[in-house]
Write a structure and sequence with these properties.
The structure is a homodimer. Chain A is mainly α and about 220 residues long. The first copy, chain A, is built from nine helices and no strands. In chain A, helix 4 runs antiparallel to helix 6, helix 6 packs across helix 7 and helix 7 packs antiparallel against helix 9. Chain A is flat. Chain A starts with 11 loop residues before the first helix and ends in a 5-residue tail after the last helix. At the A-B interface, helix 5, helix 6, helix 7, helix 8 and helix 9 of A face helix 5, helix 6, helix 7, helix 8 and helix 9 of B. The first copy, chain A, binds a DNA duplex (30 and 30 nucleotides) through loops. Chains A, B: One of its GO terms (biological process) is negative regulation of DNA-templated transcription. Chains A, B: One of its GO terms (molecular function) is DNA-binding transcription factor activity. Chains A, B: This is TetR/AcrR family transcriptional regulator C-terminal domain-containing protein.
Chain lengths: ~220, ~220
DNA sequence: CCGAATTGCCTTACACCGTAAGGATAATCC
DNA sequence: GGATTATCCTTACGGTGTAAGGCAATTCGG
């Protein structure tokens, strides 16, 4: 049945891993089948025996990033668990700023990512939220995390660049409020801002749960 | 000096307008210089006399979308103003779901977009927040709005598709929590969720402003 | 009023992209 | 040891962004 002729140089995993490395070092636009093959010591078309298309490759990258989400200890404290998931998620954006847009843009609806979705949604459900409340709170938190990840990633990218920095471009002339604000939008400030916004959203989820308990004390 | 030989068929504005139409009808990936030229009855290279490169074109599209933000009446009520800006922003995502990712990914640091940034930041400042607080609140709200816009746009896109719908794909088998939640994540529910999250964030800004007033009652 | 200059659009060309089709090689099984 | 089959390669096609240069129409200087 499972004959295995010729020892393989390539696997799905090594391809995905190399693709992420390539994106991080050269940028998302520079991920081409030829460049990726080159990095793996292989011709472009060889990749197609392991991955059906570039679009599927992007899905696999998304899945690889999604499964990096760490859930921490299963404490039974939903707030700690959501905090852990959220920090783990933003950490992915910080470590893979150029790949993160894939994670933010694509849904968690592949077989590889659904288990992750399931675990996250379960935290909300165990916290006492009904399906509708779970959907709402999940979306709101997700909006925030994706936006934060994208912006932090873009900021990392922008501050790495040497060719253009808004601060000394002169563009800010005539925009005094922007001028006095940009310094506070720099990378070192963003983690504090992230934590602050995260607490705001978790507080609101806490309110929602309390409200649910009052109105439907015994249902789940 | 400014001789004007030959009446032009093309202007920057018509090019940008056509590009947005093309993206919305065919998708972001289908925006090519040749396709765009074709839509304008012109060869691809003719565009380059008006726009330096495709990247600049994307910047112009971003600026065009950004300037669609409506600020409503200048009431002096910061909360109403931020609500108006936020709703106007998500409206852009809903009307231009396939172009919106450009707006979410690119910064407001071109000459065309800076006036918009300035007006938005001014709302926070006039509300009584110092520069650092302005930066934080602006970012948090921005994270939320960008995430919401992206997800709503992606949802619109996904529900338009006929080839794949998660609900009847069978993928959800074995993921009961996801299964009972997806229905609540459908497009009709998203506007309610958006409003809810928006109020949460505006409430937190209100708290922040109040706190600022207490600690530094007379400074701006 | 006519040549010169300039602008707006076009033609051609190049390197790169994703990928369809089919070929060569080497490890395994019967 | 011959057939099978998984892996990788070669070639080729139509698409991409865009650099270089050409040509025609309009306006200006004389």
């Amino acid at each position: 049945m499972t004959t295995m002729p010729k020892k393989p140089k390539l696997t799905r995993e090594t391809i995905v891993e190399a693709a992420i490395e390539l994106i991080e070092s050269e940028g998302l636009d520079s991920l081409s089948t030829r460049a990726l093959g080159n990095r793996l010591g292989v011709q472009a078309m060889s990749l197609y025996h392991h991955v059906e298309s570039k679009d599927v490759l992007l899905d696999l990258i998304t899945a690889r990033l999604a499964t990096m989400i760490e859930f921490g200890d299963h404490t039974g404290n939903w707030r700690c668990e959501l905090e852990a998931v959220s920090r783990s998620y933003i950490d992915i954006a910080r470590r893979y700023p150029r790949s993160f847009p894939l994670l933010a843009a694509r849904r968690f609806n592949t077989p590889e990512t659904l288990p992750v979705l399931e675990r996250i949604l379960s935290i909300f459900r165990r916290a006492g939220l009904p399906p509708a409340g779970t959907a709402a709170s999940f979306r709101i938190l997700g909006y925030y995390l994706n936006g934060a990840g994208l912006t932090e990633g873009a900021t990392i990218e922008a501050e790495r660049r040497t060719d253009f920095h808004l601060q000394d471009s002169g563009f800010l002339e005539g925009f005094p409020v922007s001028g006095e604000t940009v310094a506070h939008l720099a990378l070192p400030n963003l983690s504090g801002i992230f934590e602050k916004g995260l607490e705001v959203i978790l507080d609101s989820i806490e309110d929602e749960i309390r409200l649910t308990r009052v109105n439907r004390p015994h249902s789940v």
